[in-house]
Predict the structure.
Amino acid sequence: MEYRFLGGSGFRVPVLTFGTGTFGTGVRAWGASDAAEATRLVDICLDAGLTMFDSADVYSKGVSEETLGKAIAGRRDKVLISTKGTFGFGSGPNDVGSSRYHLIASVEGSLKRLGTDYIDLYQLHAFDAKTPVEETMQTLTDLVRAGKIRYVGCSNFSGWHLMKSLAISEKYGLVRHVAHQAYYSLIGREYEWELMPLGVDQRVGAVVWSPLGWGRLTGKVRRGQPLPAVSRLNDKADTAGGPPVPDDYLYKVVDALDLVAKETGRTVPQIALNWLLQRPTVATLVIGARTEAQLRDNLGAVDWQLAPEHVALLEAASAVSPVYPYWHQHSFTSRNPFPTNISWR
């Protein structure tokens, strides 16, 4: 398993991270692994050198973290834990957001559920426009100094959200975000427009969530065929919260993936994941799996590289016209070039 530095930090993470949204019972469309199943999946990950596990307090209302805690019991020193807070966790007026009150409560709750006394990477799950950024970053700094978290990151931020946070950190000498957990896939390339150049410039590593496009790039979704019987795409409530993808565009990309799969002998998910691992700023991909077979297939995405001609084919099939101001910037590429293939290894 390859390890990369997380952004501009000295912290190295495996290029694949296991997402534990499938642990617990709160999101049935994602899966519902109990402690025994979770332990088995963790065993497989560790055998393959995948040592990082990502969760969030809101996944299954805390059950995901509890299940992960049970699965890693007795081997905390063998794993890296990332989790997230900011979304509502309770019914009180202060049980939501990135205020000092809520972040401290969120971290304490996560530590208890995970059965650990520190979190390796703690991420703000969303931007909180109602709390001063100074308050949020000072609180994260205090939690780092208290030894409760090691590194901090964010998730689902706009470019200005992230840049403002970094500027506040620099101005006051506070901890800075070294990671941005963002959506990025072959059928969702908006990350490249602003967040990727920002990541290169500010040395913020991408922790990619849903790298298979909300389950659309599993190899089971194809033109003219019904959706598989077991798929998160069958849950309208779940798909409504995910990225929209026009059918024609999806099938065009899947056709390209099928062609590359035929020429390489790799599976569609492996190709989609490997393409991401060659993109600038990408540190690690958060993979999720309901079953052992899915996990083992995803693990096959590492330790090889797509040929340049296959990369070019996939990029051509998945290219879309960007919105303003990015289409205008693309007309001035001599001064706004696409980021070089930077990952911090």
Residues 3-332 form a domain with the TIM Barrel fold (CATH 3.20.20.100). The beta strands are 3-5, 12-14, 16-19, 52-54, 80-85, 119-124, 149-155, 177-183, 205-209, 282-287. The chain has a mean pLDDT of 93. The longest strand covers residues 149-155.
